[in-house]
Amino acid sequence: MTGFPLHLLRHGAPETPGLLLGRTDMRSSAAGVAACAAKARGVAAERIVTSDLLRCRQAAAIIGDAKGIVPIVDPRWRELDFGAWDGRAGSQIDNDALARFWNDPDGCPPPGGERWSSLVARVDAALVALDPLPTLIVTHGGTIRAALHSLCGFDPRQTWSFDLPYGVLVSLRVWRGDVTSAQIVEIAP
Question: Please, which residues bridge with residue 47 across strands?
Answer without folding.
Answer: 135
